[in-house]
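[job 0412] stage=fold_complex status=start
inputs:
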Amino acid sequence: MRQDHLITATQLSRDDIEAVLDRAREVADDPGAFADRHAGHVLALCFFEPSTRTRMSFDSAAKRLGMETIGMGDVDSSSVSKGESLSDTVRVIEGYADAMVLRHPSEGAATLAAEHVSVPVVNAGDGAGQHPSQTLLDLHTIRENHGLDDLTVGIMGDLKYGRTVHSLAAALTNFDVNQHFISPESLRLPRSVRFDLHETGAQLREHTDLDDVLGDLDVLYVTRIQKERFPDENEYHRVAGEYQIDAETLDDASDDLTVMHPLPRVDEIAPDVDETDHATYFEQAHNGIPVRMALLDTLMENAEADEETEADR
Ligand code: CP
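[job 0412] stage=fold_complex status=done
writing structure:
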C-alpha cells in the first residue's frame, strides 16, 4: 500500500488491501519480528469521541511495534474545550508525534486534519462517515474465515449512520462479493453511499427482512441500531426488535455462516449466539492488533521513504 494517510476505504484498491492483510498475517504468525521496528517514534491518539476497541488496539499495536503513544485524554481537559479549532489542534500535535489516529464526531474531520499536517493520519471514525481501519480488520476476519471472493455478505442494522458499514461496503466492491443490506426503510444506506456503490458496478440488494436472504449468506455483519438518532422513541422500539438475532434465528443459516459485529453491541445479538460456532465478533475485535500493527508499520514505512526521497532532492 503506497498511501500517506488512511482516511476512507474508497482510497483502497484491492492490492492495497491485500498488502496490509498479508502483512497482518505475517504479524499474527511472528509478532516478535515486528517488535521495536518503530522504536523512537510516537503515535498520537486523538479521540474526540468515546472508544474502547479502536483507541486501545491502536495503543497496543503501536507499543508492540516499539512506539510510544500520547493521548489527549478527556476532550474536556484539552484546549478544545477553550474553543481551539481542529486544524490548530492537529498542527500542534504534529510537532509532538510521528503519526496520528483521529476520531471525531464531524464527518470530514480526518480529511481536514490530513490537509493540515505532514505526518500520517488514520481516520478512526468521523461522525457517520467512515471507519477504514475497522474495515481492514473486518476484511482480515472475513479473509481468514472464507477468503474474499465468491462470497455473499449481509450487512444488517443501522445502515444510515453506521460508519463501519459505509467503509466495509465500499471496500468489498474490490472483491467478488454479493452484498445484501438489511434494515428498516428509515435506516437504509444513505443515497450518496448507494450511488457510489452502484458507480463501482457492485452487486447489491436491499431488504427489510433478514429471512429473505439469511440462508444464502456466508457472513452476517450486524450493527447496533442507534436509538439516540430516532426523533420518535416508539419508532425505534417498533423497528429494533426486528433486527435482533438469537441462536434460534440462526437455525435457518448455513453451518458456515460467520456472524460479525464491530461492537459495542447492545441487544442486537443475544448472548446465546456467543455459544454458537457462528460467533466471530470477539475474534474480529482481537484482529485489531495484527491489522493495526500492519497498518501502522506500512504508513510509517511510507513516511520514512518520503523523508528519504525529500532528503535526496
Ligand atoms: N468498533 C469500534 O470502533 O469500537 P470502539 O468505538 O470501541 O472503538
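[job 0412] summary: The first helix runs from residue 14 to 29.
[job 0412] exit 0
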